[in-house]
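#random but structural
TW: two for the price of one
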Amino acid sequence: MRFMQRIARRRIADLERQLQDVQQTLGELRIIDTQISDHFRRNGITETHFPEDTQP
């Protein structure tokens, strides 16, 4: 049981690190998306939405 607990705790730690990385990357991508949208707006460019842009 202790062996399995160690494995579970290591896996939890690994997944928490991955989650932090994913959350950081998502934040960075959202900033980029906002900057691009702002650029379009400032330059009078209409954004085009593609089918894959919509969430299910």
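TW: number two ↓
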Amino acid sequence: MTKDTPSEPALAPRTRDAEATKARILKAALNEFARYGLAGARVDTIAEKAKANKRMLYHYFGSKEELFQIVLENAYLDIRQAEQKLRLHELDPVEALERLVRFTWEYYLKHPEFIRLVNSENLHRGQHLRKSKLVSIFSRKLVEMVSGILDRGVAQGVFRPGVDPVHLNLTIAAIGFYYLTNRYTGSIIFERDLMDKAALDERLTFNIDTILRLVRA
């Protein structure tokens, strides 16, 4: 190696810079897509907020649609990985199911961008999510986890047999998702502030009670 040849460690800062730039782009893209959806999001705005340029964005992510797909995939992986960290298999089945309902509700409250991304993807009929093998793998793990909870509950005589884990997952998501996506119209129609802390606490109690009633023996 001559003195003019760059050594391998000298490439590390450039690698770190590239990863930092991609991270900033993904963060800016998450905010933009969550606010305006795929159709309304602007690449110029994403690049500006990421302190990058469009050339870099296209170099790293290919296109706006490919960037949206990665942001969407990351959002799903985040909630799926968080669910696995609950270690529900170690808990009593009733406690495990209650914790999952509580977690789902609290996750939606803390991550409104997830709800908006899901709504945006449904407008596109799931065409981007369909391409993700990782999301499929982690989603199967969720179904397996809930199936295990149900099986343990049946074995202990506390849950009735025959509950479909997919339908149960859909119901757990729906009772939280619908409430929050319709909070503005719901507050007007039912003449109460659905986002008041007391109302949110009451809703969580209702969600837990509803799910447990569905599965109890």
